[in-house]
């Protein structure tokens, strides 16, 4: 593998915003897709996360493809749904964007932990990230299912070997967190301005 498993993600980040600094739909969704192969390397522990992320990308992509000009900018989905009073529906794009962003928060926090705590085991790094990000939004059932799945986290050394390729994995991981984190922060900030950042799982 040329570079590390993060190389395509780091490349994709360059195209996410327009020259005016607006979040572009297609590049953002393409960027999220480049993270799916990274999640694959976690095996069974991340099956839930992967299907959740994949499902939300598909939902947003389907709507984007219905009118690429109209939905060129990521937040248009939310603005349209707020006007039609459908933003709070469980199948809405607003809900999809919110949960996609939250799942990515979890991954960014996890990679931060792996960089900052080289002595932590994988279940410890995953558990801490879950507590800091997704847990407060999950109901009891989602929380127990998630916690059970994280117990299947792979051995840390094996995981790092698999994702390293020929690059500097810790440097790429750190760069990924530093550059991807602000996009997620922007999403939360926008969702908060329209009162949509604090929806919980049923």
From TrEMBL:
Record has Ion transport as a keyword: no
Record keyword Transport present: yes
Pfam family membership, one: GLTP
Residues in Glycolipid transfer protein domain copies: 24-164
Keywords: Transport
InterPro entries: GLTP_sf, Glycolipid_transfer_prot_dom
Position of the signal peptide: none
The protein's name: Glycolipid transfer protein 1
Organism: Camelina sativa (False flax)
Gene name, Swiss-Prot/TrEMBL: LOC104786220
